[in-house]
Amino acid sequence: MGSSPRQGEPQQRLWVRALMIGFGVLVAMAQPADAAQTKTAARAVRGYPNSFAPLVRRIRSGVVNIRVLRKSGASNRPTDPFFDLFRPDEPPESATSLGTGFIISADGDLLTNHHVIEDATRIDVTLDNGKSVEATLVGDDPKTDIALLKIRGWFTPLPLGSSETLQIGDWVIAIGNPFGLEQTVTAGIVSGKGRFINSGPYDDFIQTDASINPGNSGGPLFNMKGQVVGINSAIVAGGNSIGFAIPIDLVKSLLPDLKRVGRVVRGWIGVSIQTVTPDLARSFDQPRLSGVVVNDLDPNGPAKRAGLNRGDIIIRFDRKPTPEARILSRVVARSTIGGDALVEFYRGSRLLQRTVRIERLADPTETSPTANKSAEIGVVISDVTPEAAARLNVAPETGVWVLRVMPGSTADAAGILPSDVILELDDRPVNGVAAFKVEMARKASGTVVRIFIQRGTQSLYIALKKP
């Protein structure tokens, strides 16, 4: 007995309603509820993080603002346009400049760029909470543009990551004080590694498109774990978001020397080198060879003693490939002083090996045979050599050349700077280190000594209290 139409109608309506509800659900799933959801979904597909805010909240307290006071006329800062872009448009005699730094130890060690604090007579650090404290210079290295400072107190340091593990395309965050705008956050990716920008002999920069501007200099570059992977240092003039950071692995290798002696101790083997070009390789009858050719050798250097000659082409040093001169320079510089390194090189068509003993690269303050330390006031001084006289704007054998000023010393506190020439102590000429020591020995402890100095084209008096 079949069903009547009235009995079948409710069942049909239920099926139709169910189909309509199901279709509506599919439509709703295919169309996000609003534009924000659409944007979030699209960003997720492209690989963008939804937000950097949680990470920034965790790391920004370790970033500091640096304000530097300089004496009028202090003009030893680099003139390279990469570095000039990090300073406000001020004349050389300007008394202030701004930069960024970041805390790396609980007891107040912090890092920044050398060019941020160069020639500073006072360094003030503004913390994330707005408190300002004075910093002292522990050590610096102009060749890699790194400076280590110290502030008093206890802090939460930023963790240092590894720049070696960074990959091109990784997300990075820069935090700094561009144009004095404190705690500015920008994001981008790693655009390149191992960049050489002619800023020094040990260039090995990370390239990033995270926006970096004047005032960011010395600030941290973070990975997505909140670890510091670089120190923001330079930008390309006229470039669109092309910035460079010093790899943190390089910085970590230099920190022990900066803490211990205030400068970096580097290895030396006594060779002058250049990268082998394809044309140069063909001239040596080695068209497929890449490496570093020895142009000249120090007659008393380790390489000469080990048996290397001019024209040898070094392909490996301490078992590390050396396809370019700058790579060999970095490897030698980081080698252990007093250790031995195996050098592999071609001499003509023969592949040879020699063992070279690594010696210490002389510090600039040791280039003069008359360099001497005056420990009581904290300077390294030298007689003014004929070669240095023209550069220092003084007559030969006039005065005493200041090669280095020890951080926190009496001379540092008085305002004496490297490259100053001390001409007189209390109106008595001091034409050489011996005369300086005699005059200083005559002064009683606690007395104020009036020092007359030449600084570039300026002459000025400085009052120094003998310890």
Provide structural commentary:
The chain is built from twelve helices and 27 strands. By secondary structure, it is an alpha+beta fold. Strand 26 and strand 27 form a beta hairpin.
Main beta-sheet strand count, sense and barrel state: 7 strands, antiparallel
The portion of residues assigned to helices is: 10-25%
- Count of the domains: 4
The overall average pLDDT, rounded, is: 81
- Low-confidence sequence ranges: 1-9, 21-31, 40-45, 73-95
Query: Which CATH top level class of the largest domain fits?
Result: Mainly Beta
Q: What shape does the CA trace take?
A: flat
- The class by helix and strand makeup works out as alpha+beta
- In CATH, the topology of the largest domain is named Thrombin, subunit H
Secondary-structure arrangement, i.e. CATH architecture of the largest domain:
Beta Barrel
Beta-strand percentage range? 25-35%
Distance between the termini: 122 Å
Radius of gyration: 31 Å
The DSSP helix count reads 12
How would you classify the quaternary structure?
Answer: single chain
Give a count of the beta strands, DSSP E runs of length 2 or more: 27
Concise account of the structure shown:
It is built from twelve helices and 27 strands. The protein is an alpha+beta fold and 467 residues long.
